[in-house]
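Below is how a single chain appears once it has passed through the pipeline. First comes the sequence as given, then the structure the pipeline wrote out for it. We keep one example in the README because the format questions we get most often are answered faster by looking than by reading.
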Amino acid sequence: MGVDLRSTPPLHCGHFSAGRCRSCTLMGTPYADQLAAKDAAVRERLGPLVPDHGWQEPLPSAAAGFRNKAKLMVGGTAGAPTLGILDADGRGVDLRTCGLHEAALATVLDRLARFVTRAALPPYDVARRRGELKHLVLTASPTGELMLRLVLRTTGPLERVREHLPGLLADLPQLRVVSANIHPEHKATLSGAQEVPLTEETLLSVPMGPVVLHVGPDSFLQTNTAVAAALYAQVTDWLTDRGAATVTDLYCGVGGFALHAAAAGIEAVGVEVSADAVRGATRGARDLAG
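Resulting structure:
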């Protein structure tokens, strides 16, 4: 991936230093040291099972700006929303400047906050169990296109969301997929069972090496696009080097491994229970079939 670990300084984050967010527990540790520690931990656990010639060097990532998905809890008020996390007292902590997000995400978060205000979407108050907007989940494709999921407590705000959505789409033409997820339960889960599509397109196209993955609001996508592409390519190389004729991809999701194998001429079967993921994997298979 061309990452020079020697020239990668420890990442600094003002949110971490100020104690507003402590999610990145290795903040301040040089990335080369982090990678070496992970490599050593894996070798310690799997060493008895892997011959010496079976180990490869770990694949490094960019230290910042690599995450293609932002899962943002919404706090504050409709007039002044925060996008980020909640503190120990349930108050919103704004993390729009988090250094992990890809630029395609970071550059639009202010406009999403303004959309919350225009559509008068009251953030969900965890302590009082009232309000509507729980999360914004934003996903970026390498093409620059975006998918937005609004997690709401009820269907009540949908009319206002639909009323103001054309303005948001005009402001963000790269926003291809928008949906609302209805999550009425008061519990620490990201989404509920009901998904309401708000755009004609319901799948985000994510080019990945020789294939295109099609991701829905409820589908899993590896959050580091560059590392995922390298992972899929590496596994495909292992399969072709061994002359594999068939492969079964269990828990295949949107088909990352299976589609890459199929693109290399290997007969692939994907097994998945998520309807959203199956829908995306099926479209990816149709793409390959021409």
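The two ends are 30 Å apart (CA to CA).

See the next section for the split statistics.
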